[in-house]
From TrEMBL:
Listed PROSITE patterns: XYLOSE_ISOMERASE
Database matches in Gene3D superfamilies: Divalent-metal-dependent TIM barrel enzymes
Residues bound to Mg(2+) 1: 230, 266, 294, 337
HAMAP family associated with the record: Xylose_isom_A
Protein's name in the database: Xylose isomerase
Cofactor(s) essential for the protein: Mg(2+)
Subunit and partners: Homotetramer.
Compartments where located: Cytoplasm
Co-factor note (free text): Binds 2 magnesium ions per subunit.
Record-level GO cellular component terms: cytoplasm
Family per similarity comment: Belongs to the xylose isomerase family.
GO molecular function term, any single one: magnesium ion binding
Domain Xylose isomerase-like TIM barrel: 108-278
Organism: Trichococcus pasteurii
């Protein structure tokens, strides 16, 4: 059965096309800096927002029209697999991501849940073998069910910790079965509401224990995906332990996880933490820990995780610049952790929204490549830090100076001459690369 029978495969038609179901900027075979756009961008589609999000919000009922709903949860789950791979093929997207509860109903027991997962992943694997589409990453949803009200690995209940561990084990079994390149931990409720009844160190120690168990189990079964942690500052927890990239890297280093874990960074999570997306990506690069990204954007007028499809060229340009500086994003990718707006409720909107995001990232890639080829940022930074190329600056960098010698130098140096950054002009020039 086709769920999008009136839609042909989405193709690149250029900026002059009037066809809304066509790419205007994303040309998979176009070569940019020695690689095709498809190789650079490594697009992925998120199963949760694409297949299970219904358009409801805290103030309104579901609005989305979805033709894959069946008479039972398992029938719906099977229909979703068919519809999902049709979407991936229509978009010519190479990767996808999912939580365990996205693909299969939990049922009445852990055993039933795992049996459901096995049945659905058999269907998914058959589709992967048929299409060549790959699993970018999977993860366990350890935040939605009431059992996780006080967290998963950070829970005060040892029984909850054990249940979470079982989900992670199954997640790694699935990852091996489907050839997953990465495995993500998102600590949706790994945090606290009040320190009055919380032992923060105890909880973080337990989170690290679960992570180390995951690494050990992966080695045991002969499957070593790139493990990723996805930072988020709040929502649902008031204080989450993986607040931002810097906080998460401190955790990784404290517990000796550097060799196994990198970061999966989301644009909307960055803004909720009070950062830009490029800041979070740059922090990760400083630690050689930029693993993968979730592509979306937030609404600056709304203080929650709106997960909008990315359409801001300024943001995608700076994000793609960080990826180019990183030497690429593989084995990670650019996963659209994005949901259509409540008013975009038709089936076709799922394709239109992804086209918009893919076109915007393609434009970002082209602009970032030009910035890199013309050394726009490199020249700015070279000039700004030029005082370290010779003289006292060069001696500081070579560790030849001390507090005493620098004091003596400063006493004799006289007035310090500074240069203006001309930052407004720089930002204006950056705009020239975006159009």
């Amino acid at each position: 059965m086709s769920y999008f029978s009136t839609v042909d495969k989405i193709k690149y038609e250029g900026v002059t096309t009037e066809n809304p179901l066509a790419f205007r900027h994303y040309n998979p075979s176009e070569v940019v800096m020695g690689k095709t756009m498809k190789e650079h961008l490594r697009f992925g589609v998120a199963y949760w927002h694409t297949m299970t999000q219904d358009g409801s919000d805290p103030f309104g009922s579901p609005t989305n029209i979805r033709t894959w709903e069946g008479s039972t949860p398992m029938e719906t789950a099977k229909n979703r697999v068919e519809a999902f791979f049709e979407i991936l093929e229509k978009l010519d997207v190479e990767f996808f991501c999912f939580h365990d509860v996205d693909i299969a109903p939990e049922g009445d027991s852990l055993e039933e849940f795992f049996n459901n997962i096995d049945e659905i992943t058999d269907l998914i694997k058959a589709k992967m073998d048929q299409t060549g589409i790959k699993l970018l990453w999977n993860t366990a949803n350890m935040f939605s069910h009431p059992r996780y009200v006080n967290g998963a690995a950070s829970s005060n209940s040892a029984e909850v910790f054990a249940y979470a561990a079982a989900q992670v084990k199954k997640g790694l079994d699935i990852s091996k079965k489907l050839g997953g390149a990465n495995y993500v931990f998102w600590g949706g409720r790994e945090g606290y509401e009040s320190l009055l009844n919380t032992d923060m160190k105890f909880e973080q120690d337990n989170i690290a224990r679960l992570f180390k168990m995951a690494v050990a189990y992966g080695e045991k079964i002969g499957h070593k995906p790139q493990f990723l942690i996805e930072p988020k500052p709040m929502e649902p927890s008031k204080h989450q332990y993986d607040f931002d990239a810097a906080t998460t890297m401190a955790f990784i280093q404290k517990y000796g996880l550097e060799g196994d874990f990198k970061l999966n960074l989301e644009a909307n999570h960055a803004t909720l933490a009070g950062h830009t997306f490029e800041h979070e990506m740059n922090v990760a690069r400083c630690y050689d820990a930029l693993g993968s990204i979730d592509a979306n954007q937030g609404d600056m007028l709304l203080g929650w995780d709106t997960d909008e499809f990315p359409t801001n060229i300024y943001d995608t340009t700076l994000a793609m610049y960080e990826i180019l500086e990183n030497g690429g994003i593989a084995p990670g990718g650019i996963n659209f952790d994005s949901k259509v707006r409540r008013s975009s409720f038709e089936m076709e909107d799922l394709l239109l929204a992804h086209i918009a995001g893919m076109d915007t990232f393609a434009r970002g890639l082209k602009a970032a490549a030009k910035l890199k080829e013309e050394r726009f940022f490199d020249d700015l930074k070279d000039k700004r830090y030029a005082s370290y190329n010779e003289g006292i600056g060069a001696r500081i960098l070579s560790d030849e100076e001390t507090l005493e010698s620098l004091t003596e130098y400063s006493m004799q140096n006289g007035d310090i001459k500074l240069e203006s950054s001309h930052l407004e002009f720089v930002k204006s020039r950056l705009n020239d690369y975006l159009v």
